[in-house]
What we know:
This protein has 120 residues and is mainly alpha-helical. Helix content is 63%, strand content 0%. Helix 4 runs antiparallel to helix 5 (80-87) and helix 4 packs across helix 6 (92-114). The two termini are 21 Å apart.
Amino acid sequence: LFFPSNMVNRVSSNLLLNLCFQSCSFYPYSDTSYKGERLSYHGIYFAVEKIGEIAHIEDLHPHSFRHTYATDLLLLGVDPSHARKLTGHQSEKAFRRYTLRSEQEAAIAAYYRAIGEEAE
């Protein structure tokens, strides 16, 4: 999931904290000092979906963050086997879908180096 800079400004960590723990209607407790159990998968899914709705980001789901994290690790040059472990992927085949963008970026950079220009 690519976040344009204007979206990053809208979905800051402060906004996420406020949305998740204080001001949103999906938070079931008025007492913000409540320390209950961990959110279930469905609770997290609902919270992230609600945050996307408030921030005007269509189709925002928890898995989008995993995908973005994996792609960013690879674009930063982290070894794919390490990135796979950091993202919790058991299968090399399942992780492969995240390597495509980094491979494309590397190919573009190699092309520009070969012709003696800098990538934009």
